[in-house]
Amino acid sequence: AKELGGNRTVFYNAEDTNRMNRRIAIEMGLRPALFLRQFHLSYQPIYRLSDGRLRGFEALIRWQHPELGLISPHEFIPIAEYNGLIIPIGEWVLREACKMLAGMTEYGLSGLTMSVNISPVQMQDPSFVQTVWNIIHEFGLSRQSVELDITEHIMMHSSEQSIMAITQLRAGGIRIALDGFGAGFSSLHHLMELPVHCLKLDKSFIRRIDLQSAERHVVEAIIGLMRKLGLEVVAEGVEYKEQYELLKEWGCHYVQGYLLGMPMDPTVIDTSMLGSFVD
Ligand code: C2E
After folding, report:
1. Helix (H) or strand (E) holding 10
2. Atom 4 of ligand 1 has which residue's CA nearest to it?
3. Cα-trace Rg, the chain
4. Residue 237, ligand 1, Cβ within 6 A
5. For residue 189, what pLDDT is reported?
6. ipTM of model over 0.90
């Protein structure tokens, strides 16, 4: 228990203390983690539904903490956003993913796209757009081969600066996808306001489409609407063949999920992945 003065006392139980200690360890560990090379990227394949072929990969960050083990990005990204470290970490992710894409092209895996998650905090950095151009140039990539995944949270963080950055990137040929559509407070209003070319349907939405559920009709209708608006749709979290078949029938463009491939280590990616998923 801790005395707060004015006769107020707060009690911490063991669970709270553990949680606080873990948060402190993560905060303290984040700063040297880049320098100590504790981050790595996993790559999850994304497939085209029309022919079952590979469209590209999504880069997903992993942190191997020396004491705490593997920490999920769900846990450390919000902390990195809070203390601003997401800016150097995000730049490292983009450079590493672009280096991987350039390496894959050389290795015979050509014509693929690389999707990279971008935090709203990165978008507020006035040098972000220039950083993107520099990295793409550094690896001699085409701008169309890079897709930046943004979330609607972007609208809550200095949205003018973010919309300006997205508009510049989009005008310069970068692909922009709105991630996590269907989770939380997604709104069509935000979708119309942002110059995106692609919508990623959240896995919480996809989970129940193979059952007789409301989601089934909602997802089918969203895909139809997005096609009318000329937007591409990626369904995330596809785990069952039934979901794959339904999404194909409804005209969804791309799929990602454990059915098609887990996030993988770069060493296991090879040209055998160029074959059709359905073969
Ligand atoms: P996200 O962008 O929605 O990424 C998809 C997440 O779903 C990944 O979790 C992936 O492993 C998981 N997933 C993929 N297929 C399936 C499936 O079939 N079923 C289920 N249940 N899950 C599936 P992960 O890697 O833990 O990443 C979580 C989130 O952390 C990401 O969600 C993204 O928002 C964030 N994140 C990951 N890497 C980065 C990064 O480099 N920068 C930033 N800013 N955020 C990142």
Report:
1. strand 8-10
2. 60
3. 20
4. yes
5. 77
6. yes
The pTM of the full predicted model, rounded to 2 decimals, is 0.93
Q: Which of 81, 42, 79 is nearest to 64 (CA)?
A: 42
Ligand 1 pocket test, pick from 151, 236, 240, 241 with the greatest ligand atom count within 8 Å of Cβ, gives 236
Flag whether pLDDT at 59 surpasses 70. yes
60 in ligand 1 pocket by Cβ < 6 Å? yes
Q: Verify whether ligand 1 is closer than 6 Å to residue 115 (CB atom).
A: no
Q: What is the pLDDT of residue 11?
A: 65
**What's the rounded mean pLDDT across residues 189-212?**
87
Q: What is the spatial distance between Cα 187 and Cα 201, in angstroms, rounded to a whole number?
A: 13
Separation of alpha carbons 121 and 157, rounded Å: 7
Q: Residue 279: is it exposed, middle or buried by C-beta count within 10 angstroms (0-12/13-18/19+)? A: exposed
Burial of 72 (0-12, 13-18, 19+ CB in 10 A): exposed
pLDDT at 92 > cutoff 60:
yes
Collapsed DSSP state (helix, strand, coil) of residue 13: coil
Question: DSSP for 101-170?
Answer: HHHHHHTT--S-EEEEE--HHHHHSTTHHHHHHHHHHHTT--GGGEEEEE-GGGGGS-HHHHHHHHHHHH
Q: Which of 169, 189, 171, 176 is nearest to 148 (CA)?
A: 176
Distance CA 97, CA 114 (A): 7
